[in-house]
Design goal:
CATH architecture of the largest domain: 2-Layer Sandwich
Order of helices and strands: EHEHEHHEEEEHEEEEHE
Strand order of the largest sheet: 1-12-2-8-9
Helix content: 10-25%
Number of strands: 12
CATH superfamily of the largest domain: CofE-like
Shape: globular
CATH class of the largest domain: Alpha Beta
Distance between the termini: 39 Å
Strand content: 25-35%
Length: about 250
């Protein structure tokens, strides 16, 4: 049985906060166990790491001003998006579709102002989400004696479907993919394309357990033990499709 429980009691995260200590304290009520997975909204990680920018400190470039006029956006916000982007793939309907420096293809390079204290601040993705996940796992092991699987997540849209779902942008101690290719299905036929995005599925499941307006950035998922590893593993980077294999670029 798979269960997902949002942890209560975490405060508003600020730059320099010991996120591992805060999570360890909140997780005491749920008796953290080996094989558990902690799913952490990236904003908690980004805030603790100081990955935010005050719009007042940003001087927009001519390109940012042009895109902002086209998209009806704040040019300072657009500049923050450009700074976090390796490539801008498309600008339409108020959104910039970008390839981030981490390799993710997403709206506005993950730069977001929701659930942020103050109206003049945006939060960025962690600089290296997999490294952040590994560090958080190591710190939790030191604090509580258990190294749970760690997922760092963000909400992504889908090109062909309405709505957003949470996906993994950082991962440690968890196999992010389960490859069934070459194995038989229930009728004995060889599976040729079945490659399960375990990390993304757990991220999406965890998001159903938290309230978007309830300051619940951490969800404890239990029942996914077979995917949890002693080693940190390849991280969420393993989920990124190389550009040469991308059918839409």
């Amino acid at each position: 049985m798979l269960t997902a429980v949002a942890l209560d009691g975490l405060p508003e995260i600020r730059s320099g906060d010991d996120l591992a200590e805060l999570i360890a304290t909140a997780a005491k009520a749920e008796d953290l166990r080996a094989g558990d997975v902690l799913v952490v909204a990236h904003k908690a990680v980004s805030k603790a790491e100081g990955r935010s920018r005050a719009l007042a400190s940003i001087e927009p470039s001519p390109r940012a001003k042009e895109l902002a006029h086209q998209l009806d956006k704040d040019p300072r916000h657009v500049q923050a998006v450009l700074d976090e982007s390796r490539v801008v793939l498309r600008a339409a309907r108020g959104v910039l579709i970008c390839v981030t420096h981490q390799g993710f293809v997403c709206a506005n390079a993950g730069v977001d102002a929701s659930n942020v204290a103050g109206s003049d601040t945006v939060v960025l993705l962690p600089r290296d989400p997999d490294a952040s996940a590994r560090r958080l796992r190591r710190q939790l092991r030191e604090l509580v004696g258990i190294g749970p699987g760690i997922l760092i997540t963000d909400s992504f849209g889908r090109a062909w479907r309405h709505g957003q779902i949470d996906v993994a942008v950082g991962c440690a101690g968890l196999s992010p993919l389960e490859d069934w290719r070459g194995r038989p299905d229930a009728a004995g036929r060889e599976l040729r394309a079945t490659w399960i995005a375990v990390a993304d599925q757990l991220a999406a499941a965890a998001d159903l357990a938290r309230r978007k307006d309830g300051r619940q950035p951490v969800v404890l998922v239990r029942g996914a033990e077979r995917h949890v590893m002693e080693v940190d593993g390849p991280g969420a980077a393993a989920l990124i499709r190389p550009e040469a294999e991308d059918l839409f670029r």
